[in-house]
Input
Amino acid sequence: MRRFITAAAAAVALWAGAASAATLETVRGRGQLICGVSQGFSGFSLPDSRGEYRGLDADYCRAVAAAVLGDATKVRFVALTAQNRFTALQSGEIDVLFRNSTQTFQRGNTIGLRQLPVNFYDGQGFAVRRDANVRRVADLGGATVCVAQGTTHELNLADTFRARRLSFTPVVFERIDTMYAAFFAGRCDAMTQDASALAGALTVAPNPALYAVLEETISKEPLGPFVRNGDDVWANIVTTVHYGLIEAEEYGVTQANAAQQATASTDATVQRLLGRSGEFGTRLGLDNGFMLAAIRAVGNYGEVFERNVGQGSTLRLARGLNGLWNRGGLMYAIPFR
Output
């Protein structure tokens, strides 16, 4: 009986290993990462004047491409709506989803996808006109509220207003860009979305000075990547790239000094992170310098944050919960050892 169990376990392990390596093999065979992003969130994934996607999510796509393919430019970005984002991943249209997607119990257990570590902590907020004299959510009783279809924001909006006994009229949109246009045209009294996305939306408003984002938020919105279930090797790669960017910030490894640190650092953690020791890449089926390639492509987590949504960006968001764990935030990498 023991031999039978052992043989069966070995067969299952062999099947699981083959299944879990599928995306890595597909990406390598194609020579390109297909990354699902939003249709246009300033600071997260928005095409610039040359049509190149810029933002925190876009940089994560490039970091994964650099780690897996050795070239951060080998990414094809697929712009997805809130309605079709998960279907695109389930069907294999994309390899990984980086699209301001909130991680929830239901999404982690009912749609056949795996939620990976959070790369941005957010909360649902409201944008209003400054001249509306709205200072808090309680002032929105009876308001018409623009909201995106197929998002956690729809449910949070209904739950919050019901709990506070506030009436409201939702105006639901499938596309984010049409929601923005409707709000700026005065069709809604307020617009609700992740607070970071609202801050980005106001930067492209016809007259940004006319609008404000309320300080109050009504939910927890932990945002992070999704991959398919049963794809363990691929999930481990995307997860490790995220932790590697955080560890790089904690240990002072930057886009500018990563190459020098790879040869000169005497710190054991840095040596393992950058591939000088530990064979970490080999354990994932990658080159041992995979994190060196990712960091040289986009920088560490702090650099990615500051450039796209932080003080060096048009959004000028504070680090807050997205700071390192030893600086009052929640960003904490598992040890590279």
Notes: The CA atoms of residues 87 and 93 lie 8 Å apart.
